[in-house]
Design brief:
It is built from 16 helices and eight strands. By secondary structure, it is mainly α. It is globular, with a radius of gyration of 27 Å.
């Protein structure tokens, strides 16, 4: 809806676009002025800036300057990225400098990919809601959304007498509490206690809110008064959209928690695992409680797959310690059908806001064409992801079951492939199968939960790689376009025009 409104306000009503390369201009001491030709179809458009002069770097005294545009956008993005981040609890003994550097790293990730941070927050919100329902259904009173977030961020650490301490998520806490392994009174701390641990800076959030409101109002006012808007400002609006969603779904998550609640179980870890039966018999990957609550969103499987590729290249961004001493900040938790709909809506809006700049004037026709291609591809990539993912994990299993009904006789199984009993596979086929298996699960520990079908990981890896290139171009072009903008981009909004005159 937001993307549609912006497109209606900002876009050129005529589908005909005629971008031409600027003519040569003199290198005088003042700002360079270029005139771009336009087609007759665009001459009467309400937001058509194609007949304007293109103006180079402009000083601010006579209006707003180039540096004002840059400062306003970067200040808005930086404030949003820094204040919205709610990182998980750090391991015991982590220095203040190490925590700060880690936040800077996630801050950079939030600037480059706000849509991924939004999905993380949505997944944690959905997990917290499920935990509230689970605890209430078990008769455990006092568990709130704050408790769910606090647990999933590593706010509770189990310290068994026969095993090193490790963090628990909400589902694992529920498992231990309902079976009497831990005292629920220790777990059910009051919401005020969680708030007391919360180190969120309310003043910083208020300043961020004021800056965001001012930026959005100013951008809308510029569109109403037919003043040009730069692509950097449009991208900032898209970033604000994701940040607002992220802050909304993280509104119950505390910030800056450094000391977790330590829980000592009533039984040894060995006893808990023995009582769990075959489900806990497998070798754990993260903690001994892996047999409870390690579901991932499908996107989390691809994300882990790509980071494992980096791991094999020598770049490890996750702890090697086992059991882990921190719940990773880049976990993508499962989403319900309703939560997935919210995710699709925000993704489409994020892409649509960029497409709303379709009718903007660019310094050259090549840059205009590349912008159009990249913004359309960003939307198309999201559509392709959902189509591939839906087919792989929902439609294909149904079709395969129907297709192979009653056809299992006379077959033997080798790995995940089924072959005729009379036809032994060739050495080449066996080798290809082994290579495929390694690619399906490239995790260092061969975590069975990280198996990804080739039919999805190969095309989605390609789609994601091109998506990164497209997003990268948009970010770079946002900055490059500042060298030449329509002259009205440097005019300030006349706020007096919005005051009714008597």
């Amino acid at each position: 809806m937001l993307a549609f409104v912006l497109y209606t306000i900002l876009s050129n009503p005529s589908p005909s676009l005629a971008f031409t390369s600027p003519v040569e201009h003199s290198l005088g001491s003042g700002p360079s002025l270029l005139r771009a030709r336009s087609s007759p179809a665009n001459s009467n458009a309400s937001l058509d800036h194609s007949t304007e002069q293109l103006q180079g770097w402009t000083s601010p005294p006579d209006g707003r300057g180039t540096i004002d545009i840059i400062t306003s956008c970067f200040l808005t993005i930086s404030l949003c990225a820094w204040t919205m981040l709610c990182l998980n609890v750090s391991p015991f003994g982590t220095s203040r400098i190490a925590r700060f550097l880690h936040k800077v790293m996630i801050f950079c990730e939030a600037i480059l990919g706000p849509e991924f941070i939004f999905q993380t927050s949505l997944g944690q919100w959905a997990s917290a809601r499920r935990s509230v329902s689970s605890f209430a259904a078990s008769g455990l009173q006092g568990w709130t959304m704050k408790h769910g977030f606090f647990a999933d961020m590593g706010g509770y650490v189990l310290d068994p007498p026969d095993f090193p301490p490790f963090p628990l998520n909400a589902k694992q806490l529920h498992y231990l509490a309902t079976r009497g392994y831990i005292d629920y009174a220790v777990v059910a701390i009051t919401p005020d206690t969680i708030d007391d641990k919360n180190k969120s800076d309310e003043m910083a959030r208020i300043i961020t809110m004021i800056q965001v409101l001012w930026f959005v109002i100013d951008t809308i006012a510029r569109a109403v008064q037919n003043l040009a808007i730069s692509t950097l400002e449009l991208s900032t609006i898209a970033y604000v959209w994701c940040s607002v969603g992220t802050s909304f779904f993280w509104r119950y998550k505390p910030q800056g928690i450094n000391v977790p609640v330590v829980i000592v179980p009533k039984q040894t870890m060995a006893k808990i695992l023995v009582n769990a039966g075959p489900a806990a018999a497998a070798t754990y990957i993260s903690t001994p409680m892996d047999f409870v609550g390690l579901e991932k969103h499908h996107w989390g499987l691809y994300w882990a797959h790509w980071f494992n590729i980096l791991y094999h290249m020598g770049w490890n961004m996750h702890t090697k310690k086992r059991p882990v001493d921190k719940i990773s900040d880049d976990q993508f938790l499962p989403l319900s059908a309703g939560s997935n709909s919210i995710l699709v809506f925000f993704q489409a809006s994020f892409a649509g806001i960029h497409i709303a700049g379709w009718g903007f004037l660019f310094p050259t026709s090549t840059e205009a064409l590349l912008w159009h291609i990249c913004t359309i591809y960003i939307m198309a990539a999201m559509i392709m992801y959902w189509l591939i993912d839906t087919y792989t994990f929902q439609l294909h299993p149904i079709l395969r079951r129907r297709w192979h009904t009653g056809l299992g006789q006379g077959k033997i199984t080798t790995g995940r492939n089924t072959i005729d009993e009379e036809k032994q596979p060739s050495a080449l086929l066996v080798k290809a199968h082994k290579v495929a298996e390694k690619f399906r699960n490239n995790s260092p520990d061969k975590d069975p939960g990280l198996y990804v079908p080739l039919k999805s990981v190969i095309p989605i890896t390609f789609v994601a790689a091109v998506y990164c290139l497209a997003r990268g171009y948009v970010v770079i072009d946002d900055l490059v376009n500042l060298r030449l903008l329509p002259a009205s981009a440097y005019q300030s909004v006349k706020w007096s025009n919005f005051i009714p005159h008597i």
